[in-house]
Amino acid sequence: DVKMTQSPSSLSASVGDRVTITCRASQSINTYVNWYQQKPGKSPKLLIYAASSLQSGVPSRFSGSGSGTDFTLTITSLQSEDFATYFCQQSYSTPRFGGGTRVDIK
Amino acid sequence: QLLESGGGSVQPGGSLRLSCAASGFTFSNHAMSWVRQAPGKGLEWVSGISYSGDTPYYADFAKGRFTISRDNSNNTLYLQMNSLRAEDTALYYCAKDYSTVAIDWYFDVWGRGTLVIVSS
Questions:
Q1: Which long-range contacts (C-beta less than 8 Å, at least 24 apart) are formed by A44-50?
Q2: What does the pLDDT look like over A47-92, one tens digit per residue?
Q3: B-chain residues within 8 Å CB-CB of A23?
Q4: In angstroms, what separates the C-alpha of A77 from chain B's closest C-alpha?
Q5: What is the Cα–Cα distance from A77 to B64, expressed in whole angstroms?
Q6: What is the pLDDT of residues B74-98, one digit of tens each?
Q7: Quick check: A34 contacting B, CB < 8 Å?
Q8: Is the pLDDT of residue B29 over 90?
């Protein structure tokens, strides 16, 4: 059972900042990692799949990287609509999500 | 495109059957899953089922208590939940697997969720 440890659990940032969120898998999982954004009261939205592939319609300021056990979601030039909670998820085996990272306004 | 129903308030030990009506895509071509979120908490995968319905998958906490099924002729996914516990209280989302036929285990379409409250 592959566990995902996400960090930080929360962060404060300003519009225009570069934001990095990391996820570590409990074992090597190649590039079987996906990232979601969830805004309050809304359903999760797929941003990145297979570690680095941008889902259709997602702005290019979002990017993902990593393989093996360490993965990163980067938001370049944070926009006001990006304040949300972000979750990583492994799809190497039956799904497990990271604990989430809340991004709020500094 | 995914509309859940069937949630509600139930006593510990009780049962509920959740439904998820799909539209706007070829339901019978995609694996489907249920994912839940306890109030103020993170996401937790509950169960998934292959596109044909032949193969179910369960999280450890769901094994023996929950049963996933689907009706491809009516574009509907189900989750039968028995022996409910207080810790099952959550918003239950229905989610569509990304690819056709194969199970990718990541989800590009989500419903709005149906709330299950287990309390005496």
A1: A44/A87, A44/B35, A44/B43, A44/B93, A44/B107, A44/B110, A45/B110, A46/B98, A46/B106, A46/B107, A46/B108, A47/A73, A47/A86, A48/A73, A49/A91, A49/B98, A49/B104, A49/B106, A49/B108
A2: 999 999 999 999 999 999 999 999 999 999 999 999 999 999 999 9
A3: none
A4: 25
A5: 47
A6: 999 999 999 999 999 999 999 999 9
A7: yes
A8: yes
